[in-house]
Design goal:
The complex is a heterodimer of chains A (about 375) and B (about 400). Chain A has about 375 residues and is mainly alpha-helical. Chain A contains 16 helices and no strands. In chain A, helix 5 packs across helix 8. Chain A is globular and about 105 Å long. In chain B, helix 2 packs antiparallel against helix 3, helix 2 runs antiparallel to helix 11 and helix 9 packs antiparallel against helix 12. Classes of the chains: A mainly alpha (about 375), B alpha+beta (about 400).
C-alpha cells in the first residue's frame, strides 16, 4: 500500500498508470449523519413518513402535559395540603411535598424512630453482601453466598425483630419499603430451593413423588395469589392447634413463598428438559448417584439456561408483594395509600402523586432486575445455543 | 459382570440379597415413597383435626347449606336479576358472571392492543418502535394492583360530577359516576336480524370451503375473505331494513344531579378493565414480538423466491408459523388475566372474590368452604385452559421426520 501511495512519478511505471490513489469522495449526505439516519429510520417510504408524523403528533399530545404535571407545575416543598392546592384559576401538578413529608414512613413504616438505625444496618449488610455476589469479577463467591444464606438472615432477624438485648419491634409496626423487601427477599430465597425440589420431583421416576409434585404445582399455579393470601390470613389459623398464633407477616410470607415456588418449579423444569439425555447418561456412567449427578452435572447447566426465567419469576414475585396490602399489611403501596387519609395532606393531586411515586419505586427494582438478567445471560452464554 | 463375559447378554436383573438391600434403588424408592405418603397423611390428618377442633371451639357450623340461605346484601353490578333476598348461591353466580364478563372483555381488548404494540415494536420506524418499547417496559414493571388503584383513585374518581362531565359523542358522558353510553334496546323482531347474521356467517363459511376446494382443484384463487365479509354485512343489513330497524338507542338524559337511562359503565368496572387491558397488553406485545422474531428470515426469502408478494408472504407463510409459537404463551397470558381479575376486590368491583370470598365469607364465617369453592372455580378454569393447550399443541406440533 505504501508503495503504491508513495508520491512522485516512478520512472519504471507506465505513463498511463496513476501513481497515487484518488482520495475517497465523501459519502453522499443522504445516507450518513443525522439526515441520512432519519431518512433510513423515519422517512424511508410514504407509509413510514405517515407513521412518523402520527407518532410525533401522539407524543406532542401526551408528553408536554405529563412533563408539566410531573415537573414544571409540581409542588416540590411545602408544610401541608395548602401548598398543594391549585392557586386561584391556576393549575397545579404533582405534590412532591407529600412524598417528602412522608418519606420516612415510606421507607420504614411505623418502625420506632429511635430504632430505625437497625433497619439501616440490615440494609447496609444486605447491599454489602449482594453487590459482590452480583459483580462477576469479585472473588469469594461461595463463601459470600454461604454467609448471605446463613449469617445474614439470622442477623437480619435479630436486628429487625429484636432479641439479644435489642428491644422487640412488633411486625405490625413494620411497613413501607422494609416490608416490601422483606417479603420479596424471603419469598425469593425460599422459593428457589423449594422450586428446584419440586421440579426434580416432577421429573422423578417415582410415581408418588411425581404425583405429589404435579398436584402441588398445578394447584398453586391454578389459583390467584389473592385467594392464597386470603387463605393464609383466614384459614391458616384454623389449621394450627389453638393457641399457636402466627404473625400476620409470617402468614403472608408462607403464602407468597409457596405460590412462587410453584412458578419457579415450572421455570426450572423447562431447564431440566433442555438438558440432553446424554448428560444424564454420562453422569450415571461416571458412577454418580442421583443427588450427585443433579448437583454436579444437571442443575448447574439447567439453572444457567433458565436464568432469564428465574429472574422473571423474581420480578413477578416482587410485583406481587404489593398484594399484601389487601390482607392489611403496609408495604410501599399500602403505606402511601394509608397516608391519603391524612387530613393534613388531603389534596386532589395527592393520590396521583403517591401512586406515581410508588410506581417509580417498583419500576426501578423490576427494571433493574430485568437488565441485570440480560447482562448475565450474555455473560454466561457459552456459545452452545443455536443462535 | 466379569470382563471375560464379552457376549452381549441381557443385563442381569439385580437381585437384592441381604446386606445390599439398603443400596437397591428400587427398594429405596418404594421405602421413600411410603414415607412420603405416611408424612402427607399424617400432615393432612393433623390439619383436619386442628380445623375441626378450632371450628368447634369457635362454634362455627360447617357444610355447604349456607348456599341456600338468604344473602342479605346487595351487589353493585348484576348482569342478571338479583336482590338482597336471594341466596348466597345466587350471589356466587353473580360474582362468577362478573368475573367472566371482565375477563372476556379484558382478553379482547388486551389482545388487540397487545398485537398492535408488539407489531409496532418490530416496526422499521425507529420512533414508533421506541414508543412501543417504552410502553412495554413501563407497564410490565409496575404491579397491576398499583395500576388498578391509580386508574380508580387518581384518574376516574377525581373526574368532575355528571353535570360537568366530559361530553362525548352520541350522548355519552364521562364523569366520576362512570362512563354513560346509549343503551341499545332490541325490538320485537330483532331475533330475525340475529338469525340473518348467523345465516350470513354460514354462507361465508360455505363460500370459503368452495373457494378452497376450487383452488385445490384448478389453482384459481377466489377472494373468499372479502366476498364472505360482504355477504355477512349485506344479509344482516337487508334483514335489519326489512324488519324496519328493530334496534333503538336509549340515550342517557341528565336529570337533577345524575343521568337517567343509558348504559352505565361504573368507574370500578372501567378501572379494572383499563388496568387489566393495559397491563396484559404489555405482556402480549412481548409474546407477539418473540413469535414473529422466531420465524427465520429464510422463510420470507423462500416465499419471495416462490414469487409470493410481501402481503401474501406474511399471511400464508409467516403468520401461520408465528401463531404456533405465539398461541401457547398467549393462552397463559389469558389465564393470567382471568386470575388477575380477582384484584377487583381492591377497587370494589363485585367479582367472584369480592362477592363470595368477601361479603359471603364475612356474613357466614364459613371460611373453609368459601375459600374452597373460590379456589376450585379458578382451578377449573385453569384446567380447562390447560386441556385446550394440550389439544392445541398436539394439533399444531411439527411432525418431524
Amino acid at each position: 500500500m505504501t508503495d503504491v501511495a508513495s508520491p512522485g512519478p516512478d520512472p519504471r511505471s507506465a505513463i498511463y498508470v496513476r501513481g497515487t490513489f484518488v482520495p475517497p469522495a465523501p459519502p453522499p449526505g443522504s445516507i450518513v449523519g443525522p439526515l441520512g439516519w432519519s431518512r433510513r429510520h423515519l422517512f424511508s417510504s410514504p407509509a413510514n413518513i405517515a407513521v412518523t408524523i402520527f407518532t410525533i403528533l401522539l407524543l406532542a399530545w401526551a408528553v408536554p402535559p405529563m412533563l408539566d404535571w410531573l415537573i414544571f407545575n409540581a409542588v416540590w416543598t411545602g408544610e401541608n395540603r395548602e401548598a398543594c392546592l391549585a392557586p386561584e384559576g391556576g393549575k397545579v401538578g404533582a405534590c412532591w411535598a407529600f412524598i417528602q413529608a412522608k418519606f420516612g414512613q415510606i421507607l420504614y413504616g411505623r418502625y420506632p424512630l429511635d430504632q430505625r438505625w437497625r433497619v439501616d444496618l440490615v440494609a447496609v449488610l444486605f447491599v454489602a453482601g449482594l453487590v459482590p455476589l452480583a459483580i462477576p469479577r469479585v472473588p469469594f463467591k461461595r463463601q459470600n453466598a454461604v454467609l448471605m444464606l446463613t449469617a445474614f438472615p439470622v442477623a437480619a432477624y435479630f436486628l429487625l425483630y429484636g432479641g439479644l438485648g435489642l428491644p422487640v419491634v412488633e411486625t405490625a409496626l413494620w411497613g413501607g419499603l422494609l416490608v416490601t423487601l422483606v417479603v420479596a427477599v424471603t419469598g425469593i430465597v425460599a422459593s428457589l430451593p423449594l422450586g428446584i425440589l419440586l421440579a426434580l420431583g416432577r421429573r422423578s421416576k417415582l410415581p408418588i413423588v411425581k404425583l405429589v409434585s404435579v398436584v402441588f404445582i398445578e394447584f398453586w399455579r391454578g389459583v390467584p395469589l389473592i385467594t392464597v393470601l386470603f387463605m393464609a390470613s383466614v384459614m391458616l389459623p384454623l389449621f394450627l392447634p389453638s393457641g399457636v398464633n402466627f404473625d400476620k407477616l409470617l402468614r403472608a410470607l408462607i403464602g407468597v413463598a409457596l405460590f412462587s415456588a410453584a412458578y419457579m418449579a415450572e421455570t426450572i423444569r423447562g431447564g431440566l428438559q433442555a438438558i440432553p439425555k446424554g448428560q444424564y447418561e454420562a453422569a450415571a456412567a461416571m458412577g454418580l448417584g442421583y443427588w450427585q449427578s443433579m448437583r454436579l452435572i444437571i442443575l448447574p447447566q439447567a439453572l444457567k439456561i433458565v436464568i432469564p426465567g428465574i429472574v422473571n419469576s423474581f420480578i413477578s414475585l416482587f410485583k406481587d408483594t404489593s398484594l399484601v396490602l389487601i390482607i392489611g399489611l403496609f408495604d410501599v403501596l399500602g403505606i402511601i395509600q394509608l397516608n391519603f387519609s391524612d387530613a393534613n395532606w388531603s389534596a386532589p393531586n395527592v393520590p396521583a402523586t403517591g401512586f406515581i411515586f410508588a410506581a417509580l419505586v417498583f419500576w426501578i427494582f423490576c427494571f433493574g432486575m430485568s437488565r441485570y438478567s440480560q447482562y448475565m445471560e450474555r455473560r454466561l452464554d457459552t456459545g452452545h445455543s443455536r443462535h | 459382570m466379569t470382563l471375560r463375559d464379552t457376549a452381549p447378554s441381557p443385563l442381569p436383573v439385580r437381585r437384592s440379597s441381604g446386606g445390599s438391600m439398603l443400596y437397591d434403588p428400587t427398594i429405596r424408592g418404594i421405602v421413600f415413597q411410603i414415607l412420603i405418603v405416611l408424612a402427607l397423611v399424617l400432615f393432612g390428618w393433623w390439619i383436619v383435626h386442628n380445623t375441626i377442633v378450632n371450628l368447634r371451639a369457635a362454634n362455627i357450623a360447617s357444610g355447604f347449606d349456607f348456599l341456600q340461605t338468604r344473602a342479605g346484601y346487595d351487589i353493585a353490578q348484576k348482569p342478571i336479576e338479583y336482590s338482597i333476598d336471594d341466596t348466597h348461591g345466587d350471589a356466587f353466580v353473580i360474582g362468577l358472571l362478573n368475573t367472566l364478563i371482565v375477563a372476556a372483555l379484558g382478553i379482547v381488548f388486551a389482545t388487540i392492543l397487545g398485537f398492535i404494540i408488539g407489531i409496532a415494536r418490530l416496526s422499521p420506524n425507529w420512533l414508533l418502535s421506541k414508543v412501543a418499547a417504552v410502553y412495554v417496559e413501563t407497564f410490565r414493571n409496575i404491579p397491576l394492583l398499583l395500576q388498578l388503584l391509580f386508574w380508580y383513585k387518581a384518574v376516574l374518581s377525581v373526574l368532575p360530577g355528571p353535570r360537568q362531565g366530559l361530553v362525548l359523542p352520541l350522548g355519552s358522558n364521562l364523569s366520576n359516576r362512570g362512563l354513560i353510553i346509549p343503551r341499545p334496546i332490541a325490538g320485537e323482531s330483532f331475533d330475525v336480524v340475529l338469525w340473518a347474521l348467523l345465516a350470513g356467517i354460514v354462507a361465508a363459511y360455505g363460500i370459503h370451503r368452495w373457494a378452497r376446494a376450487r383452488q385445490m382443484a384448478t389453482g384459481q384463487i377466489f377472494p373468499s375473505g372479502i366476498v364472505g365479509l360482504a355477504v355477512i354485512v349485506v344479509v344482516t343489513l337487508v334483514a335489519y331494513a326489512a324488519t324496519g330497524g328493530p334496534l333503538t338507542l336509549e340515550y342517557p338524559e341528565l336529570k337533577g344531579f345524575n343521568f337517567v337511562g343509558g348504559l352505565v359503565l361504573k368507574p370500578e368496572f372501567m378501572a379494572l378493565l383499563l388496568g387489566l387491558t393495559i397491563y396484559t397488553a404489555a405482556f402480549i406485545a412481548e409474546v407477539v414480538r418473540a413469535g414473529i422474531l422466531a420465524i427465520s428470515w429464510g422463510q420470507s426469502e423462500a416465499a419471495y423466491a416462490l414469487g409470493l408478494r410481501p402481503g401474501r408472504t406474511m399471511r400464508l407463510v409467516i403468520v401461520p408459523q408465528a401463531m404456533r409459537v405465539i398461541i401457547p404463551p398467549l393462552t397463559s397470558q389469558y389465564l393470567n388475566l382471568t386470575k388477575n381479575s380477582s384484584l377487583a376486590v381492591a377497587v370494589g368491583y363485585p367479582d367472584l372474590v369480592a362477592v363470595f370470598a368477601g361479603s359471603t365469607l364475612n356474613i357466614t364465617g364459613r371460611a373453609v368452604e368459601v375459600i374452597f369453592i373460590t379456589m376450585s372455580v379458578y382451578l377449573i378454569i385453569s384446567l380447562i385452559t390447560a386441556a385446550f393447550m394440550n389439544w392445541f399443541n398436539s394439533r399444531v406440533a411439527l411432525i418431524e421426520r
